[in-house]
Every structure is written in C-alpha cells, then in structure tokens.
Amino acid sequence: MAKLKSFGDLETLKKSITGKRDPKKSVIAICNGTGCQAYGCKSVTAAFQDEVKKQNLADKVDVMPIGCPGFCERGTLVMVRPQGIFYQRVRPKDVPEVVAAIGKNSVVDRLLFTDRQTGAKVTHESDVPFYKKQRRLIIGNNGLIDSTSIDDYLAIGGYNALAKALKMKPEQIIDEVKKSGLRGRGGAGFPTGSKWETTRNAHDEVKYIIANADEGDPGAFMDRALVEGNPHSVLEGMIIGAYAIGSHQGYMYIRNEYPLAVKNMRTAIQMAEEYGLLGKNILGTGFDFTLKIQRGGGAFICGESTALMASLEGKVGEPRAKYVHTSEQGLWGKPTNLNNVETWANVPIIINNGAAWYSQIGTKGSKGTKIFSLVGNITNTGLVEVPMGTTLKEIVFDIGGGIPKGRKFKAVQTGGPSGGVIPESMLDMPVDYDELTKAGSMMGSGGMIVMDDKTCMVDMARYYTEFLEGESCGKCLPCREGLRHMKAILTGITEGRGKKEDIALLEEICATIGDAALCQLGASAPNPVISTIRHFRAEYEAHINEHKCPAGVCKIGAAAVK
Amino acid sequence: MVKITINGRNINAPEGVTVLHAARENNINIPTLCENEAVAPYGACRLCLVEIKTAKGRQRLVTSCLYQVEEGLTVQTNTERIQKIRKMLIELLLARCPDSDVIQQMAKEHGVTGGRLTPQTGNNKCILCANCARTCEEVVGVSAISLSKRGVERELTTPFGEDNSDDCIGCGSCSYSCPTGAITMEDKNGTRKITWPHNEMKFKMKKCSVCGQFWAPVKQVEYVAKTSGTPVTDYDICPNCRE
Asked: Could you tell me which residues are beta bridge partners of residue A418?
C-alpha cells in the first residue's frame, strides 16, 4: 500500500474500502477480547470460519473477530449484523446452529439473553438491559471492527478527526478540547485542554506526549479493552494531540501483563505507519510524529505520571514531587503531556462532533461519558460506559442487574484499591469527579467493585491496605511505614486482637499519610480505611469489642477472645 | 531576590533556592533527615513539610527541601497541623529504628514517646533515606550501593546483592552522609571496615611512604588516579606529608 500523501488520498482510500464491502452481507462478530479468550473465543471464531465455508455461506457471511463489547459476564459474545442479533455464552458446539440460522433468517433461541425480571428472551443487542442505559461513545466501536484491521477503522469513519484536525490551527484544537470540558480519565480529572496548552507553551523545542496504559487497579480493565479492541482510536487521539501540542515523538506505556494489548497496538502502529498516518509528513501536511511502545515494568506505581516517566527513562519507577509540572519538565527533562488511554480516545470524538455537542453530555463539572469496570458481587460483570452524572443506582442495578444470589447490596468501592467505599444510603449519588471526591472516594480510572452483605468491610480494608503496602514504592516514609503499621493493626482487628485505641490510631496514621505522602498513590492509600471507618464504624467496633465479624468472614479464634 | 515571609518574618531569598535553604540561612530550623546539600533533593523523609500560601492565595503543604521560593510566598514551618504530621512521622521512624540515637533524640525534642506501634527488629538504624546511595552515585560516581526492592521490602544493597561489591572503592562517603549512623566506618591496622545494615566490607589501605600512616583505601586511590588521569605513584605520599 502506497503512503497517503494528501487528504484526498485518504478520501479515495476510504471510498475504495467501503466500495468493496457488500452491505447485504451478514457479519458474525465474535468478541476476541482477553476476557472472552478465557472463555475460549478463539476456538469459537475458528469454528465459525470453518462452518461458514462448510455451509457454503462464504459469499453471504463474513466472520469478524472484534474487541471487547463489555458484557464479559456472558462471553463468548457473538453478534450477527446487520440483523443485530445478540448471542451469549456461545461455545464451539453451538456454531453450526448459529450459522444455519443465519442462512434460514432465523434465530437460535437458546443462546439469546434472558431478561431476569421479565423472563423474556431478548433478541437484539440494543434491547439487552445491560446495554440499554449505556451510552457507548468510546467503547461502542469495539464491537464494529476487527482491531487488527486499519481498514475496518477507516470504514467506520476512523481518522476523519485527524484529517479535520490537521486542517485546524493547533490553538484551535486546544481551544476545542478546553471548551469540551474533557477531564483526565486516569483518575485525577485534570482539564485536558489546559494540560495541552501548558505543554504547548512550554519553552522547549522538543516535547513529548505519552499515553498511560499501565492500568494497574485490580478489577479494572477498560483501558485494556480500548487498546486491544480499538487501538486506532487511541492512536488518532494521540496524533491529534501531538499536532496540537507541537510534539513529534510519543510513547505508549502499556503494562506488560497485557500481551494482547501490546500486540494489537503494535499492529495498529505498523498499519498507521504504512498508510502514512504516522511518521514523516503525515497526509502531506509536513507534520511528523512517531510513536513507540514501552512495556511496563510490572509495578502499580508506574501508573503515576512521574514514576512512569522515570521508568520510561530506564530508571527505577519511583515518583518525584511535581512542584515543577511534567508539562514543563517531564520525560528527560522536556515538556511532556501525559494522558490516559481513555482520555486520548475521547479526542477524535470531540474533534468530529465539536465541543458544543460533547459538552452537552455529562454534568456541570464532568463532561462526556466514562467507562467503568463493574466487578465484584454483581450480576452483569463487564465494562459499562455511561454519561457522567449517571447515578450509582442506575449503574449497579439497572445496568449491572443488581446483586446475584438474592443477596443484599452493601457498598461499592470506586476508584480502584485506593478509592473509598460508598454505602447504600448514597446510591442516588450522580457519578462524576466532584461528587465522588466529596463522598470520600474518587473517580480513579473507573473501577467499581460491588460488595454484598457477606463482605466484611474491615477485612476488605485490610485487603486493599495489603495490596497498597505491596505496591508502595517505598521511597517516602509515611506511605511505606504507615501502610506497614496500618496493615498490622487491621490484621490484628480481623484476627480478634484489636484494641479499643486502634480506630483512633488508624485515623491518625491515615491523616498523616494523606497529608505527607510524596505522590498520589500514597496520599490516596488511606481511602479504603478512612471510608470504611466513616460508613461502617460499627463493624470495626464489633470486631474489637465483641470479637465478632458481623459478615462472618473473619475467623476470630476462641483464643483471641480471651 | 524574591521577598517571602517565614513564620511572619520578612526574608529576601535568592531566586531558585528552596524554602528549606532560605529558612536555614535565616536561622529558622526545619527538621529533616534525608536532605544533604551534596546531593540533589529527594523528598523522602517528609519531615521538612511546611504550610505555604502563594501570592495567588493557594494554600497547601509542600516539602521545603524541594519547593523553591517565589515572590510573595508565605511559609509557616510549625503550625499545629505540621506538628501533628511530624509527630506521627517520628513515631513511624521510632518504630522502624528503635535503636537509633538520632531518632530517639528527635522523638524527645518533639515529645514523641512511642509505644503505640509495634517496633521492628533487625533494621539497624537505616531509615532508607537513600543519602548513601545518592552520594555514591551523584558525588562519588561509582554507584556501588543502591536501594533495591519495593515498599516495605526496600533495602540498601550492593549490585546483585553480593556480599562484596567490586565497584565499592571504600571511600566511606556513604557513612559520612548517613543521618542516623546506620553505616559505620573504622580504620584499624591498615584496614578500613565499612559496615552497612546488610553486610560489611574490608579494604586494604595505602601507606604513606614518608610518615608511614595508612591514609586511604588502595582502591580509592586507584579510582582517583584513574578518573583524574594522574599516575598512581602521585599518591604514594599522604596529603599531610605533601604539604
């Protein structure tokens, strides 16, 4: 394929791609995300490819491996388009029936989703309750393309935003992003446009941009799904950002535990380079931008921007104080703009639709949609994308289908291991950056861990403290030593050795870590403990005073009672 | 020069210096353990936290060893909030290094009695401030010791955790920069012994051809000769006799 040398070349290519596609042809789209791979989607995909040939339907049906559409609970997921039929829990033995049904224009009833409330079978993807209340601007395209095919991405309007942006002035793009109200999806929620502007205005010829794909929160996998399932959307956002900021070199820092994400992104970069969408003189505009992948070193702390940059430089991934912002002095001392994967993926949507359109979605202070990974004691485990401001209740009950096994909802932890828990009384809270912070938790990268009444909140706080203790880099004293003692105290409480003074002591240590830690990993590390003490103090007291675990989780031995 | 106030006192400080530096120049004491002017600021011990208010009115806690002075900055070094944080930090230090005289003295000065946290054993007196490793890297330039592992398992170690580091020249800079006396050095009978929390190493010392005193480790002399491009025989006479 010859390199695209102008906007006209891109248009011609797009026309030739869409021209070759037969709109009457059915497509069997099979989720090939990491989650569905665990269900065996690869053999399902192979079975579909064989079966289509066997039933002589190759000229009527295409088989397309797609990225994660989010409903991980029900994998392997299979969608038949354009009919819009949604099959769940498909196994290789189901394949001949599904293919035959396409030939006969019918539906395989037993593989359809059953609405738990009505007991009715749901045929179409858009009618499945899990998807109904979602607004899938970012992750929705995962289901429409084979992520290893740049042509698929171009066919759904991919790189239109890049072409549009390259015709704009860099300042106009920044202005558009600022007006959109987009805030960083990595957790801190810093206004993206302002960050770009600072980096653009920083006095240095050389500037870098970075995509943070070092998703480390247990139970969070939205960034993985994006990089695996729609890598070009992230790439496109980055190229636009690089042009706006004036950067010619970018890095994609992907955690090494995401092999498929690394592989798919590598393919995407290579394809974009072949088409001339990355590299020198992009689309004949004279703008150069190259992108390299750096695999993460396996540390949670490397998701923190300064630690990530240290790691990228080949140093130990430890954070530093950010009194001089990384947008002024970041990677190798040069102005550096780092954004999370999901933030970058929002950029093409903003450029395509305009800031005015984008800023209508969401709340006053938090615009757009956010992808949450809904896990724990929840009926519909998966990735959920909703407009900011959707209430927790809607997410947990309407989309998530509530708590399984007839149990009761107890709390939801948002923001990953260093987020806080939110109790039932606060379920009507609209989810956005500011509301979550007010409630003593945080947006974080968007993890949501749902807990039922069989969860012991003290044990849960102990678990996260232990996780954070293990992931603390150890550079600063309060985080390293504070977490060590917090874990010891919490372990004591869960084993029946708690003392009356423990709660106050925990609170004191928490306050010091929160105030004095060097980085945000440390500063937010006390959140699980602070929030469980705040909302579930009685459980701590029951452990300490009565040597009882109300949830029946902690094995408090008889010896300890004495 | 920029105008700032520290604890209500008006101070003129040169541009680019840290708040800690400006305070010291004006005899205002801010406690610290990991700060050492020979190496780049690090910000690990957190004892030097102060409360600031910028000219624009933004208030927050910052590490004074890292935060640079700026026009109109107001600094408070000893507020109730700061005292509370420092006390807890010292309590954590005391539990980590119960045997360190320096920490015990600091605890006494700040009214920290300890006893609430389970003390650790076997840490010697090391608070993991990395002064030693940073001095070895930034000042000496040999990186013979470094901190390894993560979090609570963090420790001072030689390359690959070997008992003997071939890289170490025995200069003892690490022991001079250690704030808590966790690294000791002893010269005796022509041998220098350096003791780190995890191991000890011995170095043969060079004898002055004039006075007969053992004056520096042979390895250090060789290193200096090599890096300065001077013949090693230039160091046969000790600095005292050379004068």
From this structure: none
Question: Structural domain boundaries of chain B?
Answer: 2-78, 131-242
Pairwise CB contact (< 8 Å): A480 & B128? yes
Q: How many CB atoms lie within 10 A of CB B161?
A: 12
Residue A165's identity, in one-letter code, is A
- Alpha-carbon span A403 to A376, nearest angstrom: 9
d(CA A423, CA A504): 21
| Axis crossing angle, helix A341-353 with helix A222-229, rounded to the nearest 10 | 60
> In this complex, is the C-beta atom of A471 within 8 Å of any C-beta atom belonging to chain B?
yes
Query: Reduced to 3 states, what is the DSSP secondary structure of residue A128?
Result: coil
The full DSSP string for A137-166 is TTTGGGGGS-TT-HHHHHHTTTTHHHHHHH
pLDDT single digits (tens) A264-279:
999 999 999 999 999 9
Do A320 and B95 make contact, defined as CB atoms within 8 angstroms? no
Please tell me which residue of chain B has the smallest CA distance to A323.
B67
Mutate to test the interface with B, among A311, A512, A513 (most CBs of B within 10 A): A512
Which residue is listed with tokens 């076997």? Answer: B122
Give me the CATH topology for the region B2-78.
Ubiquitin-like (UB roll) (3.10.20)
B63 three-class SS: strand
The token pair that represents A543 in the structure block: 């452990």
pLDDT higher than 70, residue A159:
yes
Domains of chain A: 25-128 (3.40.30.10), 150-358 (3.40.50.11540), 369-452 (3.10.20.600), 457-561 (1.20.1440.230)
Strands A421-423 and B49-53, sheet pairing: unpaired
Which alpha helices (H) appear in A454-501, and where do they start and end?
457-471, 477-494
CA pair distance A240, B22, nearest whole angstrom: 44
Q: For A200-246, how does the pLDDT look when each residue is reduced to its tens digit (9 = 90+)?
A: 999 999 999 999 999 988 889 999 999 999 999 999 999 999 999 99
CA distance A146 to A78: 13
Tell me what ipTM this predicted complex has: 0.94
The Cβ of residue A552 has, within 10 Å, a number of other Cβ atoms equal to: 10
